[in-house]
Amino acid sequence: MSCSKGRSFILMGVSSTGKTSIGTEVAHRLGLKLIDGDDLHPRANILKMGKGQPLNDDDRAPWLERIRDAAFSLEQKSEQGIIICSALKRQYRDQIRAGNSNITFIFLQGDFHLVLERMKKRQGHFMKIEMLKSQFDTLEVPQADETDVIHIDINTSFDEVVERCIQAIRPLL
């Protein structure tokens, strides 16, 4: 699928909402490029999170610049892709939007207890369970005035969440 101008879909939400697994499947099914924002974290951020320390806004700034640059690159190359990025605060989403005209955020939304259960089942990820509360405390749920955000409820099966994302993205390609 292609359009004359590139487009980024930022798959957002707290850790363990399924951003990577859902994003991978959606990108595969729709033939989109996939960029995992975790791969764009500076070394200092990875080390800090690995110690169980939450990131602050200063830590996130260079990471968000890399996310914004990745979206810009997709747009400039007339490519479509999914970028996985928590984008927890409005100011983070605004930073990603700055200078980019073809971004849609897909917010994978679930309550704390659902996400906690999913997090406990994960292996090999640098995010510590203790940090989940910090993520929910930081999360600013996108409101109606953020018209480029689509909310996807994750309190269902993996396949259903993937299908909901595909149905949200396909008309925008």
From TrEMBL:
Statement: the UniProt record of this protein carries the keyword Acetylation: no
Catalyzed reaction equations: D-gluconate + ATP = 6-phospho-D-gluconate + ADP + H(+)
InterPro entries cross-referenced by the UniProt entry: P-loop_NTPase, Shikimate/glucono_kinase, Therm_gnt_kin
UniProt GO MF annotations: ATP binding; gluconokinase activity
BP GO annotations: D-gluconate metabolic process
This protein's pathway: Carbohydrate acid metabolism
EC number of the protein: 2.7.1.12
Family: Belongs to the gluconokinase GntK/GntV family.
NCBIfam families (UniProt xref): therm_gnt_kin
Name of the protein this chain belongs to: Gluconokinase
Organism expressing this protein natively: Volucribacter amazonae
Taxonomic path: Bacteria, Pseudomonadati, Pseudomonadota, Gammaproteobacteria, Pasteurellales
